[in-house]
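Pasting as-is:
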Amino acid sequence: MKKEFLSRIEFELEHRFYYLNYPEPVSAGYWKDGNGKFVPIDSMGLDHLKASINLLKKDRKAFAKAYAGALNEKEVVGALMPLLDAKIEELAAMLKKKAS
């Protein structure tokens, strides 16, 4: 992979997406908190799940806006968006399970 690509990914993980890992995603069933600790998703309360989902959605929207039209950054978007979407789905599924 290009050094520039990896540098851009690293920047985004440090400044926006602390809760993601690349190239291997955060293990299913876990949330990476702001301190870098891995927390089991099933131990998170409803409010924590909702707040985390909202954070991811807000960050996703800002990320998409920041990279809109940036043709040379499609690899970065293509690498991080699937990880972000998968984590949103995972948290939403746990929220739905706990809420019912």
